[in-house]
TrEMBL record:
GO terms for molecular function: fructose 1,6-bisphosphate 1-phosphatase activity. Substrate binds at residues 106-109, 198, 264. SUPFAM superfamilies: Carbohydrate phosphatase (SSF56655). Pfam families: FBPase, FBPase_C. It catalyses: beta-D-fructose 1,6-bisphosphate + H2O = beta-D-fructose 6-phosphate + phosphate. CDD domains: FBPase. Residues 16-183 form the Fructose-1-6-bisphosphatase class I N-terminal domain. PANTHER family: FRUCTOSE-1,6-BISPHOSPHATASE-RELATED, SEDOHEPTULOSE-1,7-BISPHOSPHATASE, CHLOROPLASTIC. Binds 2 magnesium ions per subunit. This is Fructose-1,6-bisphosphatase class 1. It comes from Pseudoalteromonas shioyasakiensis.
Length: 322
């Protein structure tokens, strides 16, 4: 079994970036342990606090955020971090070459039901000479990412990682604490019969998405002429991992449920890293009107619509939006 550093060195990945990725993974190993402890660790349930998203913070949200923030800022590899659980960016080493945006525990509403959760991270180059306290250093389109990945805390702990040379899976060997390569060059099948969407929002979707999903549900009695299956894990990391493993289309579209919040998923630390992983595996990641990784961000907690997965199925969905 091949270990992470040699695999990335062969890809020509700068040693400093490999060390930064290994720093993220050092925190994720501890998170894997804590999440795996569940009720035994006393970290389930919610705090009395809300994050800037207006969401009640789970105890594990706070713990995992602190773990990642501390280890990254102490490493010296990071000029600044942005986190779902931090109202503002946090400055690091002014001489560092990278910035990291992360969702420390995506799907945290699943923690109390022992379902899938994960850590999502996005790494970009820090603009030369930039002020680490200046949040505008994060205002870069997703195509600028130099690395992106997630760690999925499931029956096994799996890292999906790309540095621009394809998407690979590594599985955590919990005995030795190492991530071992278990899938070289994941490929998203171009066709699929499986879709993932929170169908309870159906009446709030735009007509294009209502029509597209209706035709999937109509199956072989409708215009698609074949039946489809649905899955919804309510944790993007779990749904995207399924798409990377066996294809599918995952979407959290624009909806009118909350006029102040037409979109749910965050661009910097959910949509962009997942879009890079999916594109590196041959899939497509769009908002419905534009490629996710082309978006020029204007706020660190900016939200976007997401439609990603199997190339031909995403293109079919996009054809309803024209
Ligand atoms: P939480 O981290 O608050 O559980 O939200 C997870 C998430 O951001 C994303 O991972 C899921 O795909 C999506 O929200 C689930 O949203 P619904 O709860 O509306 O289905």
């Amino acid at each position: 079994m091949r270990r992470l550093p040699p695999v990335l060195l062969e890809d020509g990945c700068p040693r400093e970036l490999i060390s930064l990725i290994r720093t993220v993974l050092a925190a994720c190993k501890e998170i894997s342990f804590r999440v795996g402890q569940g009720a035994l660790s006393g970290v389930l349930g919610s705090t009395l606090d809300e994050n800037i998203q207006g969401e009640t913070q789970k105890k594990l949200d706070v713990l995992t955020n602190q773990l990642l923030k501390d280890i990254l800022l102490e490493s010296g590899y990071v000029k600044a971090i942005a986190s779902e659980e931090e109202d503002f960016t946090v400055a690091g080493n002014p001489d560092a070459n990278y910035i990291v945006a992360f969702d420390p525990l995506d799907g945290s509403s699943n923690t109390d039901i022992n379902s899938l959760v994960g850590t999502i991270f996005s790494i970009m180059a820090a603009p030369e000479g930039a002020d680490p306290a200046d949040p505008s250093i994060f205002m870069q389109p997703g195509k600028n990412q130099v690395a992106a990945g997630y760690v999925l805390y499931g029956p096994s702990t799996v890292l999906a990682l790309t540095t621009g040379k394809g998407t690979r899976f590594f599985t955590l060997d919990k005995t030795h604490g190492t991530f071992l390569l278990t899938q070289d060059f994941a490929t998203v099948p171009e066709e699929t019969s499986e879709f993932a969407i929170n169908a309870s929002n159906q009446r709030h979707w735009q007509p294009a998405m209502q029509n597209y999903i209706n035709d999937l549900i109509a199956g072989d009695t409708g215009p698609r002429g074949r039946n489809f299956n649905m899955r919804w894990i309510a944790a993007m990391v779990g749904d995207v991992h399924r798409v990377l493993c066996r294809g599918g289309i995952f979407t959290y579209p624009t909806d009118t449920k909350d006029p102040n919040k037409p979109n749910k998923l965050r661009l910097l630390y959910e949509a962009n890293p997942m879009a890079m992983l999916i594109e590196q595996a041959g899939g497509i990641a769009s908002t419905g009107t534009e490629r996710i990784m082309d978006i020029q961000p204007d706020a660190i907690h900016q939200r976007v619509a997401v439609i990603l997965g199997s190339k031909n199925e995403v293109e079919t969905c996009l054809s309803y939006h024209k």
